[in-house]
Amino acid sequence: MGRGMDFKAVLFDFDGVLVDTEWAIYQAWRRTFEAHGHELPLAVYTRCIGSDFATWSPKTHLEDLTGLAFDWHDLDTRRQQEIMDELGEAGPMAGVEEMLRIIAARGLPMAVVSSSSHRWVDGWLEKLGLAGHFETTVCRGDAPRIKPAPDLFVEAARRLAAEPGGCLVIEDSHNGLLAARAAGMRVWIVPNRVTEGLDFTSADAIFYSLRDCAMQLSG
Question: φ and ψ at 89, to 5 degrees?
Fold first, then answer.
């Protein structure tokens, strides 16, 4: 790789980077709000993208708006089913397989680093036949804190025996960007239709798709 491209490992976020899950999740939340007479603007919802509800919670927000307490177990179950129905047979995001081939050809280790659960992330990776590309997946519970804290990325670098400064992170969220930066890693942002309006000016680069990232790596 050329100057500034001497990466030793590549760490991928999952939701919105490898699979377009975030739009379906947002739409399900939007419908929940509308069913109770309120809107959920994208600019508000994106506070929790890449992290969890400790950062900002749509549940708390809806309860504050309505003055009601909800049976979240029931609502969560129905919302999760809506999400899976909408995703259906979703495949990898455009450019994923090309990007993975290029990185593998360079002999660089790869990991998935996500604030989501292993059940969610590993399940999708197996379903899509992508699991074999990654040396490890680091998810909620594998480190003391999730994004925007750096812990998950630091743990991934440890598992890959890579110095943080030699890691390239592929992210789509502001919380992910903050986490990778705090870990001392370089960050390429690939926004999606949920996160495209966020401020990514502190990223090392911004690309329209993983295909563009792949072209940059192969150039």
Answer: -100, 45
Domain definitions of the chain by residue range: 9-20+92-218, 22-87
Query: End-to-end alpha-carbon separation of the chain, Å?
Result: 8
Give the C-alpha separation, 153 to 138, whole Å: 8
Which fold does the domain 9-20+92-218 belong to in CATH? Rossmann fold (3.40.50)
**CB neighbour burial string for 181-207, b if at least 16 within 10 angstroms, e if fewer:** bbbebbbbbbbbebbeebebeebbeeb
**Could you read off the pLDDT of 69-110 as tens digits, one per residue?**
999 999 999 999 999 999 988 899 999 999 999 999 999 999
Residue 64 designated active-site: no
Partners of 171 in the beta sheet? 189
**Per annotation, catalytic residue among 15, 20, 122, 172:** 15
Which helix (H) or strand (E) segment is 114 a member of? none
Give the active site residue among 6, 13, 52, 85. 13
Residue 19 is which amino acid?
V
Q: What is the pTM of this model?
A: 0.92
74: annotated active-site residue: no
Instruction: Show Cβ contacts of residue 101 under 8 Å, excluding neighbours closer than 6 positions.
Output: none
